[in-house]
Amino acid sequence: MSHVEEVRSHIPTMKPLDKKESAERTAAPTAAVSEAPAWEQTTEPIDFSKVEIEPLFQDFVDFETFAKSDFRAVKVKECTAVPKSKKLLKFVLDDGTGTDRVILSGIHDTYEPEELVGKTLIAITNLPPRKMMGIDSCGMIISAVHHEEGVEKLHCLMVDPHIPAGAKLY
What we know:
With 170 residues, the protein is an alpha+beta fold.
C-alpha cells in the first residue's frame, strides 16, 4: 500500500444524504437521539449549483508530514468577541488535557459567539502560538470555505457532541 493509499484509508468520508433518506431518518427517531443533527434541521433546500470550490492541491504531502498535524475534537466552553476587532472570536476550549486552550478565529462575520458555546469543533492543536490583538492563539479552528455567487461562505466543522474533547482525528 502506498503512503497516499494509507492516508486515504485513515481519513473518513461523508456520504451525501438525499431528501428521501433524510425524511426517513427524521420520521423514525430513536430513543437515544434527543434532537436531529444540525444538517437535518435545515428547513430550506440547499442549492449547490452556484457553489464554487477551490481546486485541489496538485502537490502530494508524504505521510510523515501529514502525521505531524494534530487534529482534535474540542468542546467550546466560552466564546466571546475580541474587543476592538470586527472579525475575531476568542474561544476557550476543552481539548481533553484538563487545561483550557485559547484559540482566536476570524469568523465573527459568520457566527455570533453564543451560537458556538457547547459545540464540538475540530481544531489543529500543535501550531505554534500566534499573538493576535495581544492574545496568544494556540491552534486553529477548522472550517470549510467555498464561494457562492462571488461571496465567501464559511462553516466551522462541527461534529457529534458524543465525541469527547481531545479525541484525535486520523
